[in-house]
């Protein structure tokens, strides 16, 4: 669209030949300049919009590269043809380049100094009445946009987003190669992997009753490439997971910058990928004049437990200046009986600032409490403050001196209010984290001109599963425990940390990664702690464990999500806006009609039979 794409010279096309022009164009719709005035050119594209000024008809002709204004007068035979053609019809126009008068120059278009006076018009394809206009940036229902995605992709913002995606991927690929990585492709039809999500299964025609799985990630294959002796692998990898959609997660499929390295420590992995991510974000930080900054190298490292305490989650948005503080001990034996009894019973109290809220009415604080209840929590306590004097039920019971001690612990100013989250540690941390984000949004504290990266490190290797009443893996079961075998044999499993890490930007998790457990004896022991036998490991992960028994190098890697990277750079709130042909939240492709019922012939070839509700639905569909 206008000014959004460079228009390359058309080899063998940009200059008129002696006797004939190219069949469709000599220039793109973004190429012509004042220097072309007086020449005869041919353009092809879509009719973007028309403006009838009586004797003159102006048409904006659009192609992939930009827009050129076409003009024709009522005496020209081209006038009737262009007037009759509907918007989005594809036409070829031959004409003479003329200069616009100074008052009509369009500085917003690269071709804005000139226009093309039409002499010949050929309609290549007539457009019918459109289900959604392309001109303008009006919002349309999601089902319309996805059903007619090919029209949606013609619109300027979305077209630019997809081009940005292409450029980001090209930049990632180049930077990885410059870092010494080699690109490999791993299988799409494979076996189930322990990624934690549901697989997409593909029935085998030649092996009745057996199924392939689409890869949730190339995890095992990339580790096997390290065992095979390749040193630095990467690919822009398609991944498939049968998960529900979120704003930052597509249903069904996504792409990631998958990479793995041999003979590396955690620091080596960070040193390899940080310049790639930092470089890409710096390269596109000013995309469309947004003028954003990127946090400097090296990226901050935050231990998991510290992140859960200070930010209430393991993907903190560091643009948010609010930090959560544990104030449990301040309420032990205090005058505020409710919090005091909770602390005595083993619960915690977390507090966070509400900066400069002295002029906010009581309604602001009450609405925060109502919001917390709507999220399924008992409530969100609070204390107001103005000129160093605290107000509200908690302050009245806890006393001014007690509140000042809490204010000092939080580093509050004299006009900062406080919100309190109390309960079991996990629940209190979650509410405090959500409240931290909401307070910052409500008070406008988030700087949208920054990209703030951080690593979350030192994840616990194990956690206690309350439902199953057993110890289980908390993250990736194939990670190397810190302390290796000695830690597994001598430490409380819940105290063991792993060489696992997440890279986070502006509160969005871009990827998880780890230094892998490449030693069979340590893997068997780790799985034993989680309740799995050696036979379980040998059966479920035969390919990997057998490979490790043939000599495996220490290795590690990660896989930043491409879709999320582009979503951040495009400043889009939903990942669908940076994917060419996304599905709905219910994982449906409205444009292609997928998923759909298989024909009886297909089912027979695959030795499958549809039963239950699926059979009834297929029968109803005919």
Characterize the structure shown.
With 622 residues, this protein is of the alpha+beta class. 31% of the residues lie in helices and 23% in strands. The chain is built from 20 helices and 24 strands. The strands form 6 sheets. An 8-stranded mixed β-sheet has the order 6-9-10-24-23-22-19-12. A 5-stranded mixed beta barrel has the order 1-2-3-5-4. Helix 4 packs across helix 18. The protein is globular. Mean pLDDT is 93; it is low at 11-18.
Kindly summarize this structure in a few lines.
The chain is of the alpha+beta class.
Which structural class matches the secondary elements? alpha+beta
- Proportion in β-strands: 15-25%
Describe the main β-sheet briefly.
8 strands, mixed
Count the beta strands: 24
Q: How far do the termini sit from each other?
A: 44 Å
Number of helices: 20
How much helicity do the residues have? 25-40%
Uncertain ranges: 11-18
Provide the descriptors you would attach to this structure in a database record.
20 helices, eight-stranded mixed β-sheet, 23% strand, five-stranded mixed barrel, alpha+beta, 622 residues
SSE blueprint and pairings:
Layout: E1 40-53, E2 56-62, E3 67-73, H1 77-84, E4 90-99, E5 114-125, H2 142-147, H3 149-152, H4 156-178, E6 182-183, E7 201-203, E8 211-213, H5 219-227, E9 232-241, E10 252-262, H6 266-284, E11 293-294, E12 300-303, H7 304-311, E13 325-326, H8 328-331, H9 337-344, E14 348-354, H10 362-374, E15 381-386, E16 389-391, H11 393-398, H12 400-410, E17 417-423, H13 425-443, E18 450-451, E19 453-457, E20 462-465, E21 470-473, H14 484-490, E22 500-505, E23 508-515, H15 520-529, H16 534-540, H17 542-548, E24 555-558, H18 562-570, H19 600-605, H20 612-621
Parallel strand pairs: 3-5, 6-9, 11-18, 12-19
Antiparallel strand pairs: 1-2, 1-4, 2-3, 4-5, 7-8, 9-10, 10-24, 13-14, 14-17, 15-16, 15-17, 19-22, 20-21, 22-23, 23-24
Helix pairs in contact: 4-6, 4-18, 5-17, 7-13, 14-15
